[in-house]
Amino acid sequence: MKIIKREVEDLVFKSYLEEMLQKKKFLKMNRYLQHGNTTCLLHSIAVAYFSYRLCKLLKINVHEKELIRGALLHDYFLYDWHQKYKPCDGLGKHGFIHPKIALFNARKDFKVNAIEEDIIEKHMFPLTFYPPKYRESVIICLVDKFCSIYEAFNKNAYKMVTKRVVMDKKERRMVGKRINLYN
Ligand SMILES: [Fe+2]
Ligand SMILES: [Fe+2]
What we know:
- This protein is mostly helical.
- The chain has one domain: Hypothetical protein af1432.
- It is built from nine helices and two strands, in the order H-H-E-E-H-H-H-H-H-H-H.
- The chain has helices at residues 2-21, 24-27, 40-57, 64-73, 94-109, 114-122, 135-153, 159-165, 169-175; strands spanning 33-35, 38-39.
- It has a two-stranded antiparallel sheet with strand order 1-2.
- A hairpin with a 2-residue loop joins strand 1 (33-35) and strand 2 (38-39).
- The protein starts with a helix and ends in an 8-residue tail after the last helix.
- Residues 43, 47, 74-75, 144 line the site of one fe (ii) ion (FE2).
């Protein structure tokens, strides 16, 4: 019974993810490295999935659609922050400024509501000054930090997550892509 419940919950997650994977602009995140050899796309999917699972596990009542979509777009800054010269140069250090750039891009390319905007804008708290306003933003803010540390130390991060939440083989290959900066 427990397994069936989880599978049904995963189906909800997959439906929101699938909707985003259909958008070419969202897939652009696959071009950029986040931590270790994990792309921004895979990182964002993992943050969304673990945040969703955490809410289910602890029975936290959240707006699921906003939680998932906000997480999927929280690092939608669309540049390689490992490069010496970055588009954010002149605006501020990447760590401080990328939530604002991600929000700018998300507003431009998608329809985002107040909760999704707060998730994107506040996910780097306490590095950025203003704390998250919604329960969903607090969860993403915490899970993002755990995922970032995990990715930095794991060369094959989220292999199981990719298998679990991305059904289409071609999409799975694309989501599971690795970037090795130092090869
Ligand atoms: Fe970020
Ligand atoms: Fe992140």
